[in-house]
Design a protein that fits this description.
Layout: H1 33-41, E1 51-58, H2 75-78, E2 83-85, E3 92-94, H3 98-102, E4 107-114, H4 123-127, H5 143-151, E5 161-163, H6 168-171, H7 201-210, H8 226-244, H9 251-268, H10 270-274, H11 282-287, H12 309-319, E6 324-330, H13 338-362, E7 369-374, E8 378-379, E9 391-392, E10 396-402, E11 409-411, E12 413-414, E13 421-423, E14 426-427, H14 428-438, E15 447-449, E16 455-457
Parallel strand pairs: 1-6, 1-7, 4-11, 4-14, 5-6
Antiparallel strand pairs: 2-3, 4-10, 7-10, 8-9, 12-13, 15-16
Amino acid sequence: MLHLTGPTVQHCDGLSRRQFLTIGSLGVAGLTLPELLWAEDAAGIKSSRKSIIFLHLDGGPPQLDTWDMKPFAPREIRGEFLPIRTAIPGFQVSELLPKIAAMANELVFIRSLVGSAGRHDAFQCQSGYSFKDLASIGGRPALGCVLNKLQGAPTDAAPTFVDLMQGRPLVRNSARPGFLGPAYAPFRPDISKMFARELEPGMKKELARLGGEHTTPLTLNESLSRKRLRSRTELLAGLDRIRRRVDSSGMMSAMDRFTQQAVGILTSGKLADALDLDKEAPKVLARYTPRIAKDAYRFTTAEGPESVRKFLLARRLIEAGVRCVSLSLSDFDTHSKNFPRMRTLLPMLDHGLHALVTDLRERGLWDDVTIVAWGEFGRTPVVNKNGGRDHWPRVAPALLAGGPLRGGQVLGTTDRTAAAVTTRPIPYHDVFATLYHTLGINALRTTIVDPRGRPQYLLEAGEVLREVV
């Protein structure tokens, strides 16, 4: 569980002799940070400043109320919101997205995302694959876990992949490493005390069954100072030298090195500092704090305006050296009261994305960061009797941004009710091919070895979106 108290850097507790730096159970088996670093070293290749921010719109955003509006459709389809002009001539978005409209020439709007698995988690939005793919050997890995495998190294001052998702994506372990195994799982700090997200009753039961092993503790026993921790490390190293004399395999020397690297990550302060918003300037915090009307409707499982600061956490983590960050915004699962809920949620998305883009540009990070915002599927064209929109896997909206991409693009069209794609259908694989491309990785030619010793391509299908690269 994440604790950021006092001026000192926080680390992890539960010191024992060999596994004295436990960083949480990162999977079924559970690994200490030294073991995690040791496993990553076997496949660490090279570092890269290029990075990805996944923004999961938990529940599935409504295409008709965002950037595929149909103002001339019947009221029971077009809904309550009016379209507004954007910086892209002839293209309109919802009146609830004025900041996105103003910077539309820096963004890529997708109105024709197809191929949804129709499941209420974020796995497809993290991997490009259905949960069924290679399920017999653990399933496909999330993109961040692939980066952990290909580009992570024990010498990194920050973890490769940090998962900040809450709600369904957290409960259902959407950012899972699949057949790569727990060594490549994301760092998953518990941010529930920073950002409240009420779970549905069924989700609470699922989370209870998971126990505490789905999060990554980043705290040090309060009685242990940095100096004492380093002294303990030196003591352990001295004791290990005795055993090393009779260790012909060299494993003891290797474990000494990875233990030192684990201490380095935790004592460097980069990760803890990045997750401590108290260290951010008040002016910047204000930038990430939207003004939401006091009488704005908030559904039970929806997040409040403070959740926009997760966008700031993502920027801080990228700045600290993290290559992939996943976060979520809930709850777009609007089976009822779609319009009052969108009046609260969409301004938060609008504000957060604008703040993030502006911040990345001002800090010189824009050219190296790609952002993707999407959900599990779209919503039904027809509004139901409860004033809601139900699941609609046939077509969904998505948004891309970042310096590596050519902004000002609108991809795909749908029919008069936004029910089906009429031009330029874009499957999830195409988006992932593009994301990998921005990282300098050819996903159709790069392989990773599965537990059976067989090479698996990162993507078995898909094309880079030619309009945006």
